[in-house]
Amino acid sequence: MGKTRTTSDLLQRRQRLLGPAYRLFYEEPVHLVRGEGVWLFDPAGERYLDVYNNVASVGHCHPHVVGAIARQAAHLNTHTRYLHEAVLDYAERLLAMFPPEIGNVMFTCSGSEANDLALRVAETCTGGTGFIVTANAYHGVTQALAKLSPSLGLPIDPGCPVRLVPAPSECGNPGASFAAGVCKAIEDMRAHGIQPAALLVDTIFSSDGVFPDPSGFLQPAVAAIRAAGGLFIADEVQPGFGRTGTHMWGFQRHGLVPDLITMGKPMGNGHPVAAMAAKPELLAEFGRRSRYFNTFGGNPVSVAAGLAVLDVIENEGIMANAATIGAYLQGGLREIAGRYPLISAIRGAGLFIGIELCRDGKPATQDAARIVNELRKRHVLISAAGPQSNVLKIRPPLVFGRDHADLFMATLDQVLADLRLVQA
Ligand code: PMP
User: Fold this and answer.
1) Computed over its alpha carbons, how large is the radius of gyration of the chain?
2) Ligand 1 center to residue 237 CA distance, Å?
3) Helix 85-95 vs helix 300-315: angle between axes, to the nearest 10 degrees?
4) Cα 216–Cα 95–Cα 350 angle in degrees, nearest 5
5) Model pLDDT for residues 254-264, shown as the tens digit of each residue
């Protein structure tokens, strides 16, 4: 049976069994059967350089994480309604990574569940119902979060107490302009009798097109929501666990202490582990009014995965690598950008880099899609972000090395040249 036939069989089965809501990456979908470090392998044993997956952050199938999961799965797996030491050890280690004001952590299975819980806590503690998110935000799959995820493209219900603010811009004074958007949203809520509950942002603004700088620009917006009686929820699902290279969490780059922090994706290196960390005074009120139990959240196997990920981050210099290789990549990409006017900006922190493409001053959506698909043909996996999908999203596992960066950049350079994207 030829490769094409196998792929089309899989596509048909998938469509028939999973239904129409699922989307695949790439014009020519990739079929993967194995992963190791920064490499993914198809059924023919062909390897693909992973420049995109932030979940397997310490490397696909890291043996320390795999071993910890397997050992615990063979020993005991229950839930948090029995006493178990590991969940407490994990909570202690996580909380030690946050500012001292953050004193409690609650476990979930996905970033969506963590954000959903944060919304409930924010509503309970502020008495408000209004949430502010960025114009192309993504925060999760639940009914509540779909309304706070404009990147899903759902129609906005005019009666909904959600307000969208423009993503931070690089021009002028990003701190002042972002805060101006938040203040306007607060005023509009007030005009409609809505009390603000929280400002919820991904602290690297991934789906908005990657906006990490200048560090500190979030401060005036956070001051504004707090002055209005709302909370600041830092969604760390994307930048958390050292990806930005200089800090474990995106909010630290802004010199802020959030009220609630949500995390997920890289937390279990592929095992579904996520959490919400909080100021204890907020949870005191929440816990007084309601109880919390999540069948799988914080189970011993998930906790073993989470603990093993922290071991690897600490023992293998993961964050320092993100800083070094991230800087190396940004340097090389800037050199490439000098030769291709299509590249209008490069933004990034550590191993989270956005390459913005514009043609005649307009977002180059089609060029971005062509580049992503051409790279895939050459076995290099990336994707695109931003409201117009014109920002190439570079977000590899954090064990990405200099040789991997060189291979990625050489392939990108070749694709740009082959597509004749060198403009007059
Ligand atoms: N927040 C952000 C910023 C995300 O990028 C995502 C997932 N892409 C989520 C929340 C939701 O996480 P999950 O898919 O684990 O529910």
Assistant:
1) 22
2) 6
3) 40
4) 40
5) 999 999 999 99
- For 32-90, how does the pLDDT look when each residue is reduced to its tens digit (9 = 90+)? 999 999 999 999 999 999 999 999 999 999 999 999 999 999 999 999 999 999 999 99
Ligand 1 centroid to residue 97 C-alpha, Å: 21
CA of 111 to the centre of ligand 1 (A): 5
What distance in Å separates the CA atoms of residue 147 and residue 128, rounded to the nearest whole number?
16
Residue 163 CA, ligand 1 centroid: distance in Å? 19
Closest residue CA from atom 13 of ligand 1 = 111
Beta strands 104-108 and 47-50: pairing type?
A: unpaired
Closest CA to ligand 1's atom 14: 111
Ligand 1 centre from 313 Cα, in Å? 21
> Which pLDDT value is given to residue 424?
39
Q: Which two tokens stand for residue 18?
A: 């999973």
0.90 exceeded by pTM? yes
Split at pLDDT 50, 70, 90, the class of 157 is confident
Mean pLDDT of the chain: 96
Residues 334-343: what's their mean pLDDT?
97
pLDDT tens for 207-234 read 999 999 999 999 999 999 999 999 999 9
Nearest to 392 by CA among 338, 341, 339, 348: 348
CB 64 within 8 A of CB 308: yes
Contact present, 19 and 42 (Cβ < 8 Å): no
Which residues, judged by CB distance below 6 Å to any ligand atom, belong to the binding site of ligand 1?
110-112, 115, 138-141, 202, 206, 235, 237-238, 264-265, 274
Ligand 1 centre to CA of 37 (Å) is 22
Q: Which of 52, 211, 237 to mutate to test the pocket of ligand 1 (most atoms within 8 A of CB)?
A: 237
From 274, 297, 311, 304, select the one nearest 71 (Cα to Cα). Answer: 304
User: Which residues in 117-129 are b (16+ Cβ under 10 Å) and which e?
Assistant: bbbbbbbbbbebb
pLDDT tens-digit profile of 275-313?
999 999 999 999 999 999 999 999 999 999 999 999 999
Question: Which atom of ligand 1 is the closest one to the Cα of 264?
Answer: 15
At a CB cut-off of 8 Å and minimum separation 6, what does 391 contact? 209, 210, 354, 355, 356, 357, 368, 384, 385
